[in-house]
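Amino Acid Chain and Its Fold in Token Form
===========================================
What this section holds: a protein sequence and its matching fold, both as plain text.
Structure line: whole-number tokens from a learned vocabulary of local backbone shapes, matched to residues.
Purpose: to set a sequence beside its fold so the mapping can be learned.
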Amino acid sequence: MTFKSNITKKAALSAFAGAVVAAAMPAASLAQQAAGRPPQGWFKVCTKQEDNDVCIVQNLLTANNGQMITAVGLISVQGKVNRKILQVSVPSARLIPPGIQMQIDGGKAAKLDYAICMPDKCVAEVPLSDGMLASLKKGGEVVFTSVNFQRAPNPIKITLEGFTGVYDGEPIEQSKLEERQRLLQEEMQKKAEEARKKLEEAQKAAKAN
């Protein structure tokens, strides 16, 4: 009974923490775009979830079409529940047993087991220890390697430049977060419209020939 209860609590916490990450990730990408830098970068957001204060330091890598390549979230929960975890999301169609291998500056790889897979992504998580956090703060880059359904390793390199300052610094204000999310939606709609027009032009050119 106790074992079942612990699993249920863990799953519930992972679910709500993951939902916070999912909601905040798009703003992370736009924050970098607005600053005139590539959409990769560390970003911090804090929120209140029931009786807990949740802060997430995150990084999101996306393809040109907006599709997620890798999403990283370091989640700190304080209050009724106290917990620190590292969550890494990768596209779906992954082999489950290998999990995700994490290497900091080419050091010994640590395995992150998958907690859940959904149609659009698989999420691995591991407790965020003081040692792991210290290594991330001192590191220059971290590589997350998942294995796709064709058994091909897919290593993704993420810089740790600016990580310490973001982790120890203040989160973005909620009003700015909401504004950036709105601007991101507008930008994505604009890109979708441009892609549609290019497709129509290509179809017209094909018919003319």
The beta strands are 43-49, 52-62, 68-79, 83-90, 100-104, 110-112, 114-117, 122-127, 141-147, 153-159. The helical segments are 2-34, 130-138, 163-168, 174-208.
